[in-house]
Fold this sequence. Notes:
By secondary structure, this protein is of the alpha/beta class. 42% of the residues lie in helices and 16% in strands. It has one domain (2-274): Divalent-metal-dependent TIM barrel enzymes (TIM Barrel).
Amino acid sequence: MITSIATVTLGSSLPSRLEAIAEAGFQAVELFDTDLEAFDGSAASIKQLLLDTGLRAASYFPLREIEGTPLAERQATRDRSARYLDYAVQLGAPMVMMCSATGAQMSADREHILDDLEYLADMAKERGLLIAYEAIAWGRYVYDYRQAAELVNQLKHPHFGLVLDSFHIFARDLPLSGIAQIPKEQIFLVQLSDAPELDVSYLEWSRNHRTLPGRGVFDLASFTAQVRQSGFDGVVSLECFSDALRNEAVADVAAKGINAINNLWFGLDPSGCESPTA
């Protein structure tokens, strides 16, 4: 397992976040596109920050609204995607994470979707990158990890694989039993977060109420056990969107986060995240 955390999980400046993440013992980070937009420097400068702290970039994310793009907009979408992939290269990130499309204008035609995904995967291959595809809970046509896995399996492109995100799976109350059956080489990234039970939209729930494992209601121990049964042993990343969490001390969140990942991966109580590692 490669331990990672998304920068959006923590508050403070990007250099402070990276320092706390490295001090906690994480091996990698997922860089959000707003990191680059808000940073007073270039992508190369962020890459140097990672090198200085001993971290690697696990992914650059999230690429949105790609598959099923209306034909009149297809070239503009492909140009936008190419720029996004180029930023990933500049950051030294080996992988771009993309979300399933949500727009009402997107096509449901299977061949259209596969054609868009294959084109993106080919662009990634040209740059030595991987594309990790995530079924988000409010996706227009793809909102279940099993649907995403079918697309990955049908495409059979070595540079296009699957994201398994605990939030989107539990938010939709999807069965976990299919996870262990996914070929491990098709899983590129696993993202972990917990959340309280709330009567809000998937979007609101996801963007504002995710939290560290052990602070919510999700059965993350069973989720992680299924992932391990698949044979996956790659990047496992905390991705928690929460203003409350970002207002906590970055060192505390990072320390509790690494403890939570390790506890879950090795079958211990995830509530141990409340006790920072020694």
